[in-house]
Structure formats: C-alpha cells, structure tokens
Amino acid sequence: MARHTPSVKDDRLVYVLDGVVQMLRVDSDEWQDWLSNGDGAFRFAWKSCVFTARREQRHGKTYWYAYWSLNKKRYKPYLGPAQDVTLARLREVADDLIARSKAPNETLLQAGYERLFSSERETETTQGAEDARISASSPLKKLLTAREYAIMKAIIAGLSNKQIARQQSLSESSVKKYISILYSKLDVQSRSQAIAKALYLVISS
Fold first, then answer.
1. Closest CA to 159 of 80, 87, 70
2. pLDDT surpasses 70 at 42
3. C-beta separation of 44 from 54 below 8 A
4. Is the predicted pLDDT of residue 201 greater than 70, yes or no?
5. Is the Cα dihedral 203, 65, 68, 74 positive or negative?
6. Does an H or E element contain 41, and which?
7. Which residue intervals of the chain are DSSP H helices?
8. Where in the chain is the domain with CATH 1.10.10.10?
9. Measured between alpha carbons, how far is 146 from 38 in angstroms, rounded to an integer?
10. Which residue among 96, 105, 133, 138 is buried most deeply as judged by most CB within 10 Å?
11. Residues of 34-50 as b/e, b for ≥16 C-beta within 10 angstroms?
C-alpha cells in the first residue's frame, strides 16, 4: 500500500493512522501534539506554493523546516519549534517563497544571501562573525542602525516576528515598529520586497 503523506488543506491536517483517515484543525492542541509526536513531515500548499515541512533535531532540540525547490536549487526556510508552526507562519513562509520565485535575477539574490550567511545557516551564529563578512561601507549597513540591521538579517533568515522578538529581547509590538521603519528606509511595502532590496544592497557593496 502506498504511503500517504500528511497534508494541510485549508486549515485542516489530513493524515492516515492505522489505515483510517484522520483530520485535525491546525493551531489546535491536537495539532501541537501531532507536531511533537506525529509523522515528522507534512505537505503544505498555499496559493501557488507547495512545500514539505520536516521535523529535525538540532543541538538536542526539535525544529521544523520547509523544503522547497526552484530551478534545481533546494531552499530550506526555518519554520521554528513546534509552538511557532502556526497556519499564519506556514502561509508567511509560502508567501516569501512565492515572492522569491518571482524575483528578478534569482542568482543575484542568492549571492546576497550567501554573503550574509556563508559561514553558518543557524541564527545562533556569532554576530561579529557574520558582520565581519560585510564591509563597514556596505549601503545596507550605512542605511540602517545596528538594531535595524540585526532585525533585517533575522527577517532574511526567515524568522517570524515572534522569533525575532525572542532573539532580540524585544516585544512583538517593538519588532513591528522596527519593521515599519525598515519598510520606510528601504522604500518597500512587504517583507519579501524588503528581503530582495536588502540583498541587492549587500551585493552592491
């Protein structure tokens, strides 16, 4: 019998347990329990984007990542620990991936990403080690304050507002204010546009 891959349709997770089709609501207590103890992978579809989410162990802790391919390249956006894997977060990541697929000159955007995070992909990397890879005269660093720059890097790394707040020891409302400032300084209207603009500024240094 072919294996059935659990999948999220609208706001419901559909999976098979002991040969019986099961369904539960995303963001419910049952969803959180399934994320921690269930199959360890599911398919998510939103608009034109379809990716596979997988549970992985890192440094003794469990995190979820999205796997998605574009032009024979595989991308692995960070979703977060189980408590952060909400329907809103899944859709946010899908929207970012859709924007990436439509972005002009994907090669240049990837080059900017590699320049920011070439040594380590984890958000726990040493601040100085990453910053040392970018010239002090970088247009992005000259445009932003140190805090704004740190938040912009967290956005590029795929962190949600809640995760950024935790990382930067800020409230979520403060993170939203900083993001509004970033949009204004970068002259953009969305998260995906901010990422593209920031990466272009990185590679232009």
1. 80
2. yes
3. no
4. yes
5. positive
6. strand 41-46
7. 29-37, 87-102, 106-117, 127-131, 139-143, 146-156, 161-168, 172-186, 191-203
8. 104-205
9. 41
10. 96
11. bbeebbeebebebeebe
Tokens describing residue 37: 């103890």
Top-tier CATH class for 104-205:
mainly alpha
**Residue, of 36 and 59, whose pLDDT is higher:** 36
194: closest CA among 170, 142, 146, 158? 158
pLDDT for 112:
65
Please state the pTM of the whole predicted model.
0.59
What gap in Å lies between CA 151 and CA 149, rounded to an integer? 5
Structure tokens at 24: 């539960």
Say how far apart CA 100 and CA 109 lie, in whole Å.
9
Residue 115 sits at φ, ψ, to 5 deg, of -70, -35
